[in-house]
Amino acid sequence: MSAPKIPSDQLAQVIDKTGGPIVYKRIPVQAPGPDEVLINVKYSGVCHTDLHAMMGDWPLETKLPLVGGHEGAGIVVAKGQLVGNDIQIGDHAGIKWLNGSCLSCSYCRQGEEPLCAKGLLSGYTVDGTFQQYAIAKAAHIARIPKHLSLESIAPILCAGLTAYKGLKESEARPGQTVAIVGAGGGLGNMALQYAKAMGLRIIAVDGGKEKGEACKALGAETFVDFQTSKDLVKDIKAASFDGLGPHAVILFAVSEGPFQQAASYVRPHGTIVCIGMPANAFIKAPVFSTVVHMIRIKGSYVGNRQDTDEAIDFFARGLIKAPYKVIGLSELQKVYNMMEDMTIVGRYVVDVSR
Ligand code: NAD
Ligand code: ZN
Q1: pLDDT tens readout for residues 181-224
Q2: Positive or negative, the Cα torsion across 131, 128, 81, 93?
Q3: pTM for this one?
Q4: CATH for 117
Q5: Residues lining ligand 1, judged by CB closer than 6 Å?
Q6: Is residue 128 part of a domain?
């Protein structure tokens, strides 16, 4: 394939200062380093993490100015001299949250690269995918088969991958029940579809009629509405088939409450997996019942390269059909506003060309 023409500048959404606003403007296109590729981003999903990055919510500083975004799907248009022949110009590829890692520390060597102390984070410590041309370390790009739609695979690159990994980390087995908390959002919707494909029974927890209907359409047997339930703990336990509570609870919610309630309804010997990261939040559990019920509480953070391929494979087999809406990159601020109001059902994907 002849080398595509790469412009010297491009349109991007840029955060100049923490707290925003984001500014839609022209910025230079960067050249990839020796071990990097340049990807012409076509679509990028919008993750709640992008909002945390703009607001400076987390105890980890972002780069500034910053181009956010870490669910970018596009086409490889340039590569550094050290990038091997397994990546060719014209290949379809994805940029994930983990943009790069050292590949030589004990975590990287064991396939736990998200734990690498030198990890580079797309749309956080390096510029991400809310621009037309974005850079990633070649070793970490997601390989996207050409027959798959770049638009619909974009949300798999963080929401799908993270939800799938969290379900694996829960060690829930086919036939067992998982409570998915924050099920109406981007990661939650994905978790419903992956859980269903993995043979799990699902209790979805979120707020509002529209999210309830969406959750049921995506595979939840029961929906518990946190906004109207008078006794959430009782309702979630009652929804598990034998009343003992779900075998696993996966927490995607963007508020602290669920992180303090889960230990009250998870089944004895069950597992609580924390994935959502509300600002300044703490997990709480009574020591007595955590001990005598042998409860496990753990975190789960994105996924490694193998998890990425597996998550894409579920999608490629037609098992993951979480809904998304497409909007122009120029309208990204609107997505952030809706996200803050918790009115988004599923995911928004930005079309980077407009
Ligand atoms: P989202 O805004 O699409 O969804 C969040 C959902 O939580 C919303 O539907 C909201 O209604 C729901 N919610 C809020 N309070 C609730 C409550 N009390 N009970 C039940 N549901 C409640 O966000 P998202 O993009 O799905 O991201 C979710 C969280 O996961 C964010 O904090 C994000 O930063 C984090 N995240 C973590 C990882 C990781 O690797 N651990 C990866 C990606 C995103
Ligand atoms: Zn994300």
Answers
A1: 999 999 999 999 999 999 999 999 999 999 999 999 999 999 99
A2: negative
A3: 0.98
A4: 3.90.180.10
A5: 47-49, 52, 158, 162, 181-182, 184-188, 205-207, 226, 252-255, 257-258, 275-277, 300-302, 339, 342, 344
A6: yes
